[in-house]
Write a structure and sequence with these properties.
Blueprint (H helix, E strand, L loop, with lengths): L9 E8 L8 E6 L5 E6 L4 E5 L5 E5 L7 E6 L6 E8 L4 E7 L33 E6 L6 E6 L5 E6 L4 E8 L2 E8 L6 E6 L6 E5 L4 E7 L2 E8 L6 E6 L20 H13 L3 E5 L4 E6 L27 E6 L8 E6 L6 E5 L4 E8 L24 E9 L8 E8 L11 E7 L4 E8 L6
Antiparallel strand pairs: 1-28, 2-3, 3-4, 4-5, 6-7, 7-8, 8-9, 10-11, 11-12, 12-13, 14-15, 15-16, 16-17, 18-19, 19-20, 20-21, 22-23, 23-24, 24-25, 26-27, 27-28
Length: 445
């Protein structure tokens, strides 16, 4: 599979390394949905919360887990407090709470570093009430929890495990969770879970090379689609942001209006809803689209469950829309879809960080007018768009693997706009690095 021979239009440059780094492997970093902070899951059984304003440690959360913390997720839409879910190799998930009395102002996150002796960096004793408080523990999995995620409304928390199961928990009230589903569709270790941004649709990926989607049907959660296409373990999945159809490529610089075909393409994307990006041990990043239903109830039943038991109308058909240019040489562990630009970033075992952008085909300014990209559109609306690599970074964490990559809103004083983003990479070296994506002059590259 080859990529277009274009000159990179962007460059990833280092901005900061979050300090102090962990002394052990770090697995995943989760930016807070509204505050300029990020939580990092660490192998030393802790979660480190850093400021994205000063890039320094604010809190070290310990005491809740007996083994490595593998995954973290912030609960969305909370008022007056931050709620963090943690998943561990000890098979449990933890819920942590912290009252945010400062109102989330930037000056509240300037980087008060917490020392090992329970003191601030200036030597004053800390107020324990300022810390994250362990609220409750969720037990049930028989093996390590690999990933967890809150639904957009915050009503549900999904967890997945090496025990091949996906659990869905519903928070009835503070610290009172009920297990509403135990899904055992996968035949192998479940690597990740993620929620659709607009509805209670859950996706999971697995060692069994498949991607599966679930919805609630008649008070029971059921599999509504199974996606096959990757040839090896699927490590991560993430949905496109809500309302992102056509973002970043609605108009090329040389165009003033969209053609009828382009407008139709965007309309079809809006009908099918946010797409899904997945990455795998097979060194590919793939994009999947949901087939929009016409209301005739004839959607194919891909779950294998007889329609006499369930309504076929709930089943969904997802198909492969694109395979991104293959640049990675080893397993891709993580992929992230920008909610602001629509760009995708990926990282993994080879230490590379790759940024991709979708554009209309036939952009003469880039010198690839009419070029067909092998694998760029396996199925879709006439191949009107293509994905190209716009930035490529080697050895992002020196010789170490990168376990996770994500976009975050830039919050330091050097930011050039309210909507500017940074890329966060989390690695085996214990560090979380912050990168800025800048446009470059092609003639100087």
């Amino acid at each position: 599979m080859s990529s277009p021979t274009t000159t990179p239009t962007h460059k990833l440059t280092p901005l900061a390394t979050l300090t102090p780094p962990s002394n052990s492997r770090t697995w995943q970093s989760a930016p807070h949905p509204s505050l300029p902070i990020v939580a990092t899951a660490c192998s030393d059984r802790s979660v480190r919360v850093y400021s994205l304003t000063s890039f320094t440690l604010l809190h070290s959360i310990t005491g809740g887990h007996k083994r490595s913390v593998r995954t973290v997720s912030w609960k969305p839409s909370t008022r007056g407090q931050s709620v963090l879910a943690t998943g561990s190799f000890d098979s449990s998930a933890g819920i942590w709470r912290r009252e945010e009395n400062g109102g989330g102002r930037e000056e509240d996150f300037t980087g008060r570093r917490i020392g090992a002796g329970g003191e601030d960096s200036d030597g004053d004793e800390r107020d324990d009430a300022d810390d994250y408080q362990f609220s409750c523990i969720l037990d049930g999995h028989e093996s390590e929890i690999k990933c967890l995620a809150w639904s957009p409304s915050g009503q549900y928390l999904a967890t997945c495990s090496r025990d091949k199961s996906v659990w869905i928990w519903e928070e009835l009230e503070d610290d009172n969770f009920e297990t509403v589903a135990v899904l055992q569709e996968h035949d192998g270790d479940v690597k990740s879970v993620a929620w659709h941004p607009e509805e209670d649709l859950l996706v999971s990926t697995s060692y069994d090379d498949t991607v599966r989607l679930y919805k609630e049907d008649a008070d029971d959660w059921v599999q509504v689609s199974m996606i096959e296409g990757h040839e090896k373990t699927v490590w991560w999945a993430e949905f496109e942001g809500s309302g992102m159809a056509g973002r970043g490529w609605r108009k090329d610089s040389s165009d003033t209006t969209l053609s009828e075909q382009q407008s139709s393409h965007i309309s079809e994307l809006e009908r099918s809803g946010p797409r899904l990006a997945t990455c795998s041990d097979d060194c590919t990043v793939r994009i999947w689209r949901r087939k929009a239903k016409e209301g005739d109830g004839n959607a194919s039943n891909k779950t294998g469950v007889p329609s006499i038991i369930r309504s076929a109308a709930i089943d969904e058909e997802w198909y492969q829309d694109a395979v991104l240019p293959q640049v990675h040489e080893r397993a891709i562990y993580s992929v992230s879809w920008s909610r602001r630009t629509g760009m995708i970033v990926s990282a993994g075992s080879d230490g590379k960080v790759i940024v991709y952008k979708e554009r209309w085909r036939g952009n003469a300014e880039d010198g690839v007018e009419g070029m067909d990209v092998d694998g760029a559109h396996v199925e879709g609306l006439g191949g009107l768009t293509e994905w190209v690599v716009v930035a490529e970074l080697f050895s992002g964490h020196d010789v170490f693997e990168i376990n996770h990559v994500c976009w975050a809103k830039r919050a330091d004083k050097g930011r050039r706009g309210e909507e500017e983003e940074v890329v966060l990479t989390t690695g085996d070296d214990g560090g979380v690095r912050v990168w800025v994506l800048d446009e470059v002059d092609a003639e100087k590259v």
